[in-house]
Amino acid sequence: MKLPQKGLPKEDIFDRLADFRRDDLKWQEGRAFGYIFDPGQEIMAVGKAAYAMYLSENGLDFTVFKSLMRLEKDLAALMATHLGGDREVVGNFTSGGTESIMLAVKAARDHFRSRRPEIKAPEMILPTTGHAAFHKAAHYLDVRVVPVTVDPHTFRADPAAVRRAVGPDTIMIVGSAPSYAHGVVDPIAEMAAIARENDLWFHTDACMGGFLLPYFKRLGAAVPDFDFTVPGVSSISVDLHKYAYCPKGASIVLYRNKALRKPQIFACSHWVGYTIVNNAVQSSKSGGPMAAAWAVLHFVGDDGYLEIARRKREAVARIAAGIRAIDGLRLMTEPDMTLVSFTADGTDVFAIVDEMHQRGWYVQPSLAYDNSPAHIHLSISAANVGREAQFLADLAASVAAAKEAKPGPLQQMLQPVLGGLDPENLSGADIDGMLVMAGIGGGSPLPGRTAEINAVLNLLPPAVREKLLSAYVNDLFVQD
Ligand SMILES: *Cc1c(COP(=O)(O)O)cnc(C)c1O
After folding, report:
1. What is the model's pTM?
2. In the prediction, which pLDDT does 64 show?
């Protein structure tokens, strides 16, 4: 591919950019229950204007762009107060939950490298409901994940199982507030107490709930303690680009004190160029996300967020009641916040997902893992409020339509063998063959209906799913 010899007219460029979005998720109508946290035009416009205003400023060096240090300190201090922290709590701005989690795991790892050098292969105790970002951080940072099965009914972490998992190489324990998939808050106080007794690091992953749960609590919801008011909590991740409705690229990682945060900071003077001191993973970075986050938080204000939270809480109650009332559907558990998951007994959930997509709704399919069956996930946000009745009517119709769906031939044929596949013994050719069978070989685009592919993936061991999907994506991102 080559650049055009002469630059294109502006109109052509924007026409083409608009056209590229043709097949994207249509989120503007409040029919997407994931990916987009849409606060409405007015708030979004404030975020965009502030983003554009600070687009060119460079977060590489806060001694040159003092404005960005001001914004970052304000945002960290606001979240420290929001999450029960005292004046000792410190934090930094990051590009998202993944980066916040990556930094907290690195800080924990390096904290124990100096304090407990005898630990050569550090371990993180992670309930099976812990976000994939912890697996990613563990993978990048060479920390081993020790998975712990959660309660099969509430899907909350089981403190007794966590206690049993503590071993000589454990450095940290993770809890979620709430977990992404099932939307429940782990027993953070009990888990953090185990960490304290064993002199371990405890991280609360409040990427989803850190901003919203305090508002739910004020509205009367029974929210278990999860923040710095809980003794033993060392660090917290809280995303601003979720329920604080800030433009994407906005999260905060907080530490109980400066000593814990210290290993997060990276300095480099071992080269011939400028000396680097970085708070986070990225070096050169736009000031846009930070300014936008500051602007949106100050524009909406505390009363504004409380009101949005109240409307969401009512919508969640209506949606949960509606799901309970649909024959064949079952809530996975009672939601603590705004994340609702449900499954279907005797109907293919992936077929329901496709039927909903046909009706213009985006709901998220989730594969079976450990004691959690295949299910459908909803992240309910401001733009979804007011559409509950239409959503539930379409959901009931989708369930009825999906009941008619028969398992595809591929699934029937492969069912007996798939579950027993050994990821270690799969060759590249086996993987390619499976992709061709699933209809997505050679980097071919995903078809509109994905029920069959999901059903096949659902039958595979997780490690085989990972191999298959990595191979698929490696084939997909090639030159056209
Ligand atoms: C979204 C989320 C993350 C990861 O955050 P990104 O912003 O997608 O990187 C981590 N944990 C939980 C609970 C989340 O909901």
Report:
1. 0.96
2. 94
